[in-house]
Amino acid sequence: MGKNLWWRMGLCLFLLFTFSFSAQAQQKIIKIGAVYPLTGNIASTGLDCKRGVDLAVDIINGKYDLDLPLAKSEGLPNLGGAKLQIVYADTKGDPKNGMSEAERLIAQEEVVAMIGAYQSSVTKTASQATERLKIPYVCSDSSSPTLTERGYKYFFRVSPHDAIFAHDQLVFLKDLEKSKGKKVQTVALLYENTEFGSNAGKYLKKYAEEFGYKVVADVSYSANATDVTSEVGTLIKSKPDVLMHASYITDAILFTKTFKEMGFAPKGILTMAGYIEPGYLPAVKADGNNIIIRSTFALDLAKKKPLVAKVNELFKKKYGIDMSENAARSFMAPFVLADAINRAKTTESEAVIKALLETDIAGKQVIYPWKGIKFDPQSHQNVYAQGTLVQIQNQDYVTIWPFASAAKDVVWPFPSWKGRK
Amino acid sequence: MKKFTTKQISVTGITLLVLLLFPLVITQTYIIHVMILVFMFGMLGVAWNIMGGYAGMFSFGQAAFFGIGAYTSSFLVVTFHVNPWIGLIAGGVVAAVMAAAIGYPCSNLRGHYFAIATIAFGEIVRIFFNNWKLVNAAEGITLPMVNESFTNFMFHSSKLPYYYIILSFLLIALVICYFVAHSKMGYYFRAIKESHDVARALGVNVVWYRLIAIMISAFLSAMAGTFYAQYILYIDPESVMLLAISIQLVLISMLGGAGTVMGPVIGAAILIPIAEFTRIWLGHKGTGVDMLIYGFLITLISVYQPQGIWGLFANIGKKKNG
């Protein structure tokens, strides 16, 4: 009996010690909430985003010889070396979970800021929650233009949105004419009909007309269609110089196969999203060659930007795979937040918002070919965010635009399907 | 109509008192959120039950009514600045009219065929809204944040008003369901459920009473839809009109006990917290174990309590009395 009592007292003391220690350690931890679709039908994308975020936190918390914000110091120097900790929550891709998880992380886990969501519809509700609760939200992986059109005070976006991507594609066509003498007059638009595709289609149309191109076809379709011969038939009949396509992955594969079968080969095929997902190339192999895709990131940027190679090396060491576009996009948000909190010297919301508005991260400190990160005072969209264009050449994604960051020259016009394997 | 026993009155009173005091004692936001979802899905389950449990029309298209309610009030708020409370009624009316319009041609469909028709209806409505430019098609409707007040049906600083509003909606639905179940109409419904031909032979106007059941159900579902829109502040066809929502409602009602007043509420009170807490507890690990547990529990309930959980409660009550 007596022995037992001693044991218990010892255990109590031990627990007390550990608790008081962890309480002390907790003072140096800054919690940030992250919502992603970690289970459900797009879990693979959510987990990809999570990898990018986790690597970013490693770099911020540790000491790395990299030209990224806060990489060279351990933690946040202005807050006594405080470390970041990401608290993840699963949304399953459902907007109502986006809201409730953001609220829970803020109330229960006491996170001081939020990142993530990936799907724009979930980012919408999660950022509504942060707006209500006055907590900063930095997003670098959702691309719906409407997110930064709401005039929210606590929401910031680092990455480019679909309207910027659409605009870039038309600037590319102009550049092509200016510096390579390749003229384009007509474009055909093809887009899937959920929020992403229809928004992209809307902006492509708007900018195409502004830039003086004639839109000869405007075709929308359902992304889970199993046969698209009639859509491709319409495109062939309209004889466009360039096809612009906004798709997800399964429809990207289906269309590529149908283009080949029906011999549809305009001068250029400019696409979005689906064509750059990791599953696309293995499915279509050489048939994907010469297609141009919008992107924020490509590994061959390393040729002109050694930072990209160094970051990818760390990524590969940690996960055994190359950094994907999704991981690369989500990678930046923790840096932007850490940088702002460090300058604000506090985690108090209003001070962090003020610091975010004063954000000025140089172009050499980001892993994308941008001039840097600086937020528009009204919309809170990063004014330097820009897309790049990659082209599939020999079954590999190579950066071809902006021409200044290009790793290889663009193949133009798109060669006809005859004689291709 | 039968009289209530003292025991029934006191149990109801105590439950109600507990629910009224609950958010004042347990103040964690996410628990309140889970309770709000329980009430909302409970209400939708009660609405489904009037049509499915009592009148025997298995609907797999309830999400369409829910979505129409959400869309009607939100569209009116955004486009014409109509007060959401008026939108609430308007949504209910639109949904009920839609229900009648679709219910009438389906009045001779029975059993499986009716279920198939409702799936088709739900999907048609979703695809239609997904492409309907007037209501922003796939982009959905974002409700602007305005000052919080009861009139605006919007609250930012606390979830309590949402909690009490949806609790009262649920009570309204339960009262309607109770009266339907214990009135002459309720007996007609059950007669129709057993057999159309027998009901007709007894002089019940089958088409008419089926329509009434569908319309009440649609109206209540639409009310829940408006509540959802005002609570989440963003709707799109993929979040309010999914077939998965319709299936979840059937599941809730069947597991709780179809054809009983309280069954769907019990179903919601069990299934929603399981789904939410397993996600919170395990979802962030990205392993999908939470969904396995959810599925396992549903299987367990269907194997051991196929008449629904409410049957279990009722049996216990009977045994004690007997």
Report on this model:
Chain A is an alpha/beta fold. In chain A, 42% of the residues lie in helices and 17% in strands. The radius of gyration of chain A is 24 Å and the shape is globular. Chain A starts with a helix and ends in a 20-residue tail after the last strand. Chain B is mostly helical and 322 residues long. Chain B is built from 14 helices and 2 strands. Chain B has helices at residues 6-25, 29-54, 62-80, 84-103, 111-131, 160-182, 184-194, 196-201, 206-232, 237-240, 243-256, 263-282, 289-304, 309-321; strands at 141-142, 234-235. Chain B has a two-stranded antiparallel sheet with strand order 1-2. In chain B, helix 2 (29-54) crosses helix 11 (243-256), helix 3 packs across helix 4 (84-103) and helix 4 (84-103) packs antiparallel against helix 9 (206-232). The chains are: A alpha/beta (421), B mainly alpha (322). At the A-B interface, helix 2, strand 2, helix 3, helix 4 and helix 6 of A face helix 2, helix 5 and helix 12 of B.
Report the CATH architecture of chain B: Orthogonal Bundle
Distance between the termini of chain A: 83 Å
Task: Give the number of DSSP strands of chain A.
Answer: 14
- Element string of chain B (H = helix, E = strand): HHHHHEHHHHEHHHHH
CATH homologous superfamily of the largest domain in chain A?
A: Response regulator
Helix/strand order of chain A: HEHEHEHEEHEHEHEHEHEHHHEEEE
- The side-by-side strand order for the widest beta sheet of chain B comes to 1-2
Rounded to the nearest angstrom, the radius of gyration of chain A is 24 Å
Main β-sheet, spatial strand arrangement of chain A: 7-6-8-9-10-13-14
CATH topology title of chain B: ABC transporter involved in vitamin B12 uptake, BtuC
The number of helices of chain B is 14
Q: Identify the overall geometry of chain B.
A: globular
List the helices and strands and how they pair.
The complex is a heterodimer of chains A (about 425) and B (about 325).
Chain A: H1 2-26, E1 29-36, H2 43-61, E2 83-90, H3 95-107, E3 113-116, H4 120-133, E4 137-139, E5 155-157, H5 162-180, E6 186-192, H6 195-210, E7 214-221, H7 229-238, E8 242-247, H8 249-262, E9 268-273, H9 280-284, E10 292-295, H10 306-319, H11 325-344, H12 349-357, E11 361-362, E12 372-373, E13 388-392, E14 397-401
Parallel strand pairs in A: 1-2, 1-3, 3-4, 4-5, 6-7, 6-8, 8-9, 9-10
Antiparallel strand pairs in A: 10-13, 11-12, 13-14
Helix pairs in contact in A: 2-11, 3-4, 5-6, 11-12
Chain B: H1 6-25, H2 29-54, H3 62-80, H4 84-103, H5 111-131, E1 141-142, H6 160-182, H7 184-194, H8 196-201, H9 206-232, E2 234-235, H10 237-240, H11 243-256, H12 263-282, H13 289-304, H14 309-321
Antiparallel strand pairs in B: 1-2
Helix pairs in contact in B: 2-6, 2-9, 2-11, 2-12, 3-4, 3-5, 3-9, 4-9, 6-7, 6-9, 7-9, 11-12, 12-13
